[in-house]
Amino acid sequence: MDEKQILDRIDVLVAEEHQLRTKRLQGAIDPETESARLRDLEETLDQCWDLLRRRRALRDAGENPDDAKAADVSQVEGYLQ
Questions:
Q1: Which of 54, 41, 37 is nearest to 1 (CA)?
Q2: What is the pTM for the complete model shown?
Q3: How far is Cα 19 from Cα 5, in angstroms, rounded to an integer?
């Protein structure tokens, strides 16, 4: 994925997150379903942001950003903030 594709994916995921929260407030979705899907969305968003940072770091170092690979969810979620 190139940078634009990653940013587009982030936009789609954020929009889905907002829709999910709206549905929950309207009572159209149960809390358990919302929680599970939100967890999935957050993990995928974290992976996208991480891949974007990896690409930018490679580019800034004069390397090919296309060499960046997405990290596993367990790795990304294990990062310290």
A1: 54
A2: 0.86
A3: 21
pLDDT digits (tens, 9 = 90+) for 7-42: 999 999 999 999 998 998 898 988 898 899 999 999
Q: Token digits for 36?
A: 């599970």
Task: Give Cβ neighbours of residue 29 (< 8 Å, ≥ 6 apart).
Answer: 20, 23
Q: Which residue has the tokens 């969305």?
A: 41
* pLDDT-derived band at 80, boundaries 50, 70, 90: low
Give the residue carrying structure tokens 């358990």.
Answer: 32
The tokens for 5 are 């594709």
Tokens found for residue 67:
């060499």
Is-contact 56 65, C-beta < 8 A?
yes
